[in-house]
Amino acid sequence: MSSDTRDRILDALEMLLLDEGSTKVTLESVAASAGVSKGGLLYHFNTKDAMIAAMVRRLGERSDTQRAEAERGGSTVAHWYLQPPGTISDKETALYRSTLAVLRSVDGKPGEIQQAVIDMMRLWDESLQAEIEDPVHAEIVRLVGDGIYLGALLNLPPVDPTLHQQVVERLLGSDHVK
């Protein structure tokens, strides 16, 4: 089976999560939606957790691509991490919400999905630490960015755009970012 089949399976998983929610996702439903046999799905992902972890890693790859594009456009990792909630696509937001729902369903048991999220977040942390000289300041930027993103995921009232910009300017003034 090709990587096209693997991508088709992950695309089907994403669509089921978006359309039906995490409780409706089964190996059978994903296989049917992707147009593959359950055996074909199991060839690529031997468990539901492995399939969801692969989706999380793919979301992380998309984020890496977006971050690289921002850097080419003259932005920094920190600026990208602190972007206003409206810059995240509705589809990506919905997929991250679904991932959070799946993480809640594992009841704190460490596993492949949780590890994929930890690995993705560790890369962001390392990038911020490399870019911001003071490790405490880098951690503050990470925590603020996490809060911005979590607020968007939970549909909390948005921060006034002017205030958001002032927060970013204060956090990333010229004396903080390398």
Supply the key terms.
178 residues, mainly alpha, Arc Repressor Mutant, subunit A, 2 domains, 72% helix, elongated
Quickly describe the structure.
The chain is mostly helical. The protein has helices at residues 3-20, 27-34, 38-44, 48-72, 77-81, 90-105, 112-131, 135-153, 161-171.
Structural notes for this entry:
The chain is mostly helical. The mean pLDDT is 83. The protein has helices at 3-20, 27-34, 38-44, 48-72, 77-81, 90-105, 112-131, 135-153, 161-171. Helices cover 72% and strands 0% of the residues. 24% of the residues are buried. It has two domains: 1-46, Arc Repressor Mutant, subunit A, CATH 1.10.10.60; 49-171. The termini are far apart. Helix 4 runs parallel beside helix 7 and helix 7 packs across helix 8 (135-153).
Overall geometric form: elongated
Q: How many domains is the backbone divided into?
A: 2
Which stretches are low in confidence, meaning pLDDT under 50 for 5 or more residues running?
none
Annotation, overall tally of beta strands: 0
Report the end-to-end length measured between terminal Cα atoms: 45 Å
**Major sheet:** none
Tell me the series of helices and strands, N- to C-terminal.
Answer: HHHHHHHHH
Relative helix content: over 70%
Number of helical stretches of at least 4 residues: 9
The average pLDDT value, as a whole number, equals: 83
